[in-house]
Design brief:
The protein has 747 residues and is of the alpha/beta class. It has four domains: 32-52 and 457-476; 57-218 and 442-452, Bacterial polysaccharide co-polymerase-like (2-Layer Sandwich); 238-431, no CATH class; 484-495 and 538-744, Rossmann fold (3-Layer(aba) Sandwich), CATH 3.40.50. 58% of the residues lie in helices and 9% in strands. It has 27 helices and twelve strands. The protein has helices at residues 4-18, 22-31, 33-53, 87-97, 100-110, 139-145, 156-173, 195-252, 264-299, 307-310, 313-336, 341-393, 398-430, 455-480, 487-494, 511-517, 522-535, 557-570, 587-590, 600-605, 611-614, 636-640, 643-655, 671-675, 693-705, 721-726, 737-741, and strands at residues 58-66, 175-179, 185-192, 438-442, 498-503, 545-550, 575-579, 616-617, 624-626, 658-662, 681-687, 711-719. An eight-stranded mixed beta sheet has the order 5-12-11-6-10-7-9-8, sandwiched between helices. The longest helix is centred in the first third of the chain and has 58 residues, at 195-252. It starts with a helix and ends in a 6-residue tail after the last helix.
């Protein structure tokens, strides 16, 4: 059956496997509260200094309303129809505002080359610039290291162009253009280190955009005017030629114009001639529109302004879908790349929509072709009718009919000429009166507060960050330092009580001499408190045999054993201190006793010796000491497990009030595990903030496996009272009072 200590160590294993409890985490944070506060305050102060050193930046914004009026621009594509502004066009105008050409205009107009924010060459050199290799390495070494590149000499124009492009990029990096909730309102937001410059740049960018619109419309109107002028020149020549042909025909055939009423046949001829003129006009107009559409299709131009295309609701929907997919493709290409399956799907969708648009436009072209054919058929039919009427009137009227034909042709040319002339007049009248399809609805104002840094927010974030970092630091330190620093930690990790917190001696004297020299010191009081704790372990039966051990060497177990023995002897108890650490005997050396006298090894190996024959006496306290002895030995564990050892301990228990055994470390040899089964209680000594927890756990587990279930508790040895109190380890519990009130005792 497993003993109690082994069960406890198994529970410890389960506890460690589960990780730290919430209570342990809170306790660790509380114990390290000074460190947390210090680190948090320090980080907050550093962050505060950095925040207040940051250059403030200001944001100003202006708003534009797009597509507020009907365009009066007349271009080649809009001769027959007006331009309309859709939602997709708003997105296009946003791209125009963000264009590099517009940015260059703003940079030039505001002379941003004189502002160090945009011109890097004007910026002050950093105080730490001397640390850069470029400032102390020779040029050839910089070239070898790739710090500078060898470039071909550039002309002044190239340098200025590159500088302008660089400043334009810097400027656009500070500009944000957005659409207000799918409306036709565009917001232009500009950020700068100067509030005045921020407002000025936002307003200037809006102005330059509107001016650019007007310039584009003016150019389009000029191109349309030039085209119409060329057409008018050609039509004028046709009109003049056809009118001369009429006069020449009349003179050649000696014909005069008929005035007044005419006969029935002549009325028919007149009606047919009128219809023929109309048919020719319609056919000419249809051919013009058909050629325009065909030419634009061949050239791949924008057909959205052609009336037939513009009036097609299907094409409008397809164009909106194309714009949406194009915008989605641009956004996703940054994240996935062009070869991604999603991008390939989008490409296929775009191709499909473009094909549909092209198909619809081709249908319109076919429709216009059909319209031309119908017009031609109508014209041909009227000509046939005319010939029939002429045949009916007889050959005598052939000359007059020929005259009428020439007159009709002249009239048709004149009508077409007048149509183009009126359009030309409309175009020229609007030239210089163009209005932009955008207007400023809210000018940028000089911002009163900086948009960056948000000092209050950043300070709060820095405090929270400092707190988080300090907490992380605490847990890192806890992981890096596996030592134990408080009774609560011992209880949580090992399920054993802490019987004493023993401070280090504040003198060059050995601790066992220090307690005698300083009877009112904190060390002496700590040992007295430990004695009281030992007496209260079992009120019904006095603890007479006590084993003092540790997990590893240099924990202070021998010193503690001597302290307990001397203080107890001073209190009037008959005490014997037994040195069972045969490999590294310490007691007789520190007490300055004669090591050449027989001791425990001699008693164990020479049965004729009596216990009283080998006991030594401490001159300062009168306690007895059983040293290691002089006899050689093979294996101490075998000697301790003998019946002779049990008899010696029984004899000592009968003769003394307290028998204290200073035993070897548990992890070093097996001696302590054997001896612990022969005594009333075992004290386990840990060096404060030093002994690893895993080592202690392993040692306790080994003792449990050996059947030692009498471990009374753990002693924290060599405690630094200043750090103990500073770290908050003395804030609660009986054993903490030494750390908190250590200054009460005489050092």
């Amino acid at each position: 059956m497993q003993n109690q200590l082994l069960q406890q160590t198994n529970e410890i294993d389960d506890f460690d496997d589960e990780g730290a409890s919430f209570g342990e985490i809170l306790n660790t944070l509380w114990l390290r509260k000074r460190l947390i506060i210090t680190v948090t305050v320090l980080i907050s102060l550093i962050a505060g200094l950095i925040i207040f050193q940051l250059t403030p930046r200001y944001k100003a914004n202006t708003q534009l309303l797009i597509g507020t009026d009907s365009s009066r621009v007349v271009d080649i594509q809009s001769v027959m129809a007006n331009d309309l502004m859709g939602d997709s066009a708003v997105l296009g105008e946003m791209e125009v505002i963000k264009s590099r050409s517009l940015a260059k205009r703003v940079v030039t107009d505001l002379h941003l080359n004189l502002v160090d924010e945009f011109n890097p060459s004007l910026k002050k050199q950093s105080d730490f610039a001397f640390l850069s290799p470029k400032n102390w390495l020779p040029e050839e070494y910089q070239q070898a290291l790739g710090l500078i590149k060898i470039e071909q000499p550039k002309s002044e124009e190239q340098i200025e162009a590159e500088l302008l492009s660089s400043m334009a990029r810097n400027f656009m990096g500070k500009v944000k253009v957005s659409q207000v909730k799918r409306s036709q309102v565009i917001t232009i937001e500009v950020e700068s280190e100067s509030p005045v410059l921020a407002a000025k740049m936002a307003n200037t960018l809006a102005d330059k955009y509107i001016i650019g619109q007007l310039e584009a419309k003016f150019d389009a109107t000029k191109k349309a005017t030039d085209w119409l002028n060329d057409q008018l020149a050609s039509l004028k020549d046709k009109v003049e030629y056809s009118e001369r042909a009429v006069e020449e025909y009349r003179q050649e055939n000696d014909l005069t114009r008929v005035k007044g009423s005419v006969g029935l046949s002549q009325q028919q001829l007149s009606e047919i001639n009128t219809q023929l003129i109309i048919a020719r006009t319609k056919r000419a107009e249809a051919e013009a529109r058909m050629r325009q559409v065909q030419r634009l299709i061949r050239q791949g131009g924008e057909v959205g302004s052609v009336s037939e295309v513009l009036n097609s609701m299907l094409i409008q929907r397809l164009k909106e879908q194309e714009s949406t997919l194009q915008r989605k493709y641009s956004e996703m290409s940054v994240e996935f790349g062009r070869k991604h399956p999603k991008m390939l799907i989008l490409q296929a969708e775009l191709a499909d929509i473009k094909a549909k648009i092209k198909s619809e436009i081709n249908k319109i072209a076919v429709s216009l072709q059909n319209e031309v054919e119908v017009a031609k058929t109508r014209e041909y039919s009227l000509r046939s009718s005319l010939k029939q009427v002429q045949a009916e009137t007889g050959g005598n009227r052939e000359a007059e009919v020929g005259l009428r034909a020439l007159e009709r042709e002249a009239s048709a040319n004149r009508t077409l000429f007048e149509t183009f002339l009126n359009r030309f007049k409309e175009t020229t009248s609007t030239q210089g009166m163009d209005e932009a399809n955008a207007r400023v609805i809210s000018e940028a104002e000089i911002p009163l507060m900086a948009s960056f840094p948000k000092k209050k927010l950043l300070l709060i974030v820095s405090v929270m960050g400092g707190l988080f970092f300090s907490v992380v630091l605490v847990f890192v330190l806890e992981m890096l330092n596996p030592g134990l620093r408080s009774p609560e930690q011992i209880e949580e990790h090992f399920r054993l009580p802490t019987l004493g917190v023993i401070p280090s001696a504040t003198s060059k004297l050995e601790a066992h001499d220090y307690v005698l020299d300083k009877p009112h010191s904190s060390l002496t009081e700590a040992i007295n408190s430990l004695r009281v704790s030992l007496m209260l372990l079992n009120p019904d039966e006095q603890v007479k045999t006590l084993l003092v051990t540790s997990a590893v060497p240099s924990e202070g177990k021998s010193t503690l054993a001597m302290l307990i023995a001397r203080i107890s002897a001073q209190a009037g108890q008959k005490v014997v201190l037994v040195d069972t650490d045969f490999r590294r005997p310490t007691v007789e050396k520190k007490l300055a006793m004669d090591t050449s006298q027989p001791g425990l090894t001699d008693l164990l190996m020479q049965h004729e010796l009596a216990v009283s024959d080998v006991l030594l006496t401490d001159d300062k306290t009168g306690m007895k000491v059983l040293s290691r002895g002089m006899s050689s030995y093979v294996n101490p564990a075998d000697l301790f497990a003998s019946k002779r050892m049990q008899n010696i301990l029984d004899e000592l228990k009968n003769d003394f009030d307290l028998v204290i055994l200073d035993s070897p470390p548990v992890m070093a040899v097996t001696d302590s595990r054997v001896l612990s089964r022969m005594v009333d209680k075992t004290l386990f000594v840990l060096k404060w903030d030093d002994t690893p927890r895993k080592v202690v756990k392993a040692a306790l587990h080994q003792m449990g496996q050996s059947g030692a279930d009498n471990v009374a508790g753990i002693i924290l040895q060599q405690v630094d009272l200043k750090q103990y109190g500073r770290g908050g380890y003395g804030d609660s519990g009986y054993y903490y009072h030494y750390g908190k009130y250590g200054q009460y005792y005489v050092s």
